[in-house]
């Protein structure tokens, strides 16, 4: 049978370009790489395109920009209903075959909603710096949060950042700001309404704006979001050649850290308004360390857990930290926040 197929394909005109990876014809067509359309998302898509092209000679990657409901909605994301507002349309394109692979920030992939049926995260790219940074409007006389006068207004839409900021500076006012990183920066400068803005250093760097990071918040000052700084590649599991290709870009250490953090998030059963932070690292002696925190809205109350385990036990570690947090009151904190 295989003989016949080979003979048949030999006489068929083959579409060009044909990229071959380890003897497998990857695609006679182009590899369509789906991504959100923001400058940060497009920078990620270009990075992934270059990484894929570096693996397979002649691979033709077409970036397909997809507008998601999360991008279109200008209001409070929690009101959009359900999680994954930045994924729905991209998931659909992947499942229906309009695209072959999707690029996501892992942080935007809900931890407690199953992936679209028949799809897998085939690669976690090496994690970037997970720290959040503070940006001051151009011309501001301040460059450190400590110096901002009481009552200053801080721009962020992350409940996790708001809670941790107010915990140490209850005098500050936090106001939601939506939009892409670049539009948020432009608004910060133009409106002069905010004393400062907090966002992810990795996001700034991806759009070439790292020089705007005036203050880098330490991990102790601002525990990062679960999955921060990780770009992941999402494919159909039946597309074996693409799964295999994407796997070449997978960083096993990042995968283990992401697994621990996301299992914790999953086990905590939070909602869109839950200020949850989590950070997994590997200690110098090779142990997994997982720190988890759950805050009340203003950060006045919080639960904290830090546990260690061996690297082969990432899911168990995630579940254990979640259980420890629950024992320390995380459930009541989460349930006490309106959503
Ligand atoms: N929700 C938007 C989003 N998703 C991922 C990042 C940053 C990059 C990353 O952590 O991968 C950002 C921007 C931000 O939080 O400032």
TrEMBL record:
<dbReference type="Pfam" id="PF03900">
    <property type="entry name" value="Porphobil_deamC"/>
</dbReference>
<keyword id="KW-0627">Porphyrin biosynthesis</keyword>
<dbReference type="InterPro" id="IPR022419">
    <property type="entry name" value="Porphobilin_deaminase_cofac_BS"/>
</dbReference>
<comment type="similarity">
    <text>Belongs to the HMBS family.</text>
</comment>
<dbReference type="InterPro" id="IPR000860">
    <property type="entry name" value="HemC"/>
</dbReference>
<dbReference type="InterPro" id="IPR022418">
    <property type="entry name" value="Porphobilinogen_deaminase_C"/>
</dbReference>
<comment type="function">
    <text>Tetrapolymerization of the monopyrrole PBG into the hydroxymethylbilane pre-uroporphyrinogen in several discrete steps.</text>
</comment>
<keyword id="KW-0808">Transferase</keyword>
<dbReference type="Pfam" id="PF01379">
    <property type="entry name" value="Porphobil_deam"/>
</dbReference>
<feature type="domain" description="Porphobilinogen deaminase C-terminal">
    <location>
        <begin position="258"/>
        <end position="325"/>
    </location>
</feature>
<dbReference type="InterPro" id="IPR036803">
    <property type="entry name" value="Porphobilinogen_deaminase_C_sf"/>
</dbReference>
<protein>
    <recommendedName>
        <fullName>Hydroxymethylbilane synthase</fullName>
        <ecNumber>2.5.1.61</ecNumber>
    </recommendedName>
</protein>
<feature type="domain" description="Porphobilinogen deaminase N-terminal">
    <location>
        <begin position="31"/>
        <end position="242"/>
    </location>
</feature>
<dbReference type="InterPro" id="IPR022417">
    <property type="entry name" value="Porphobilin_deaminase_N"/>
</dbReference>
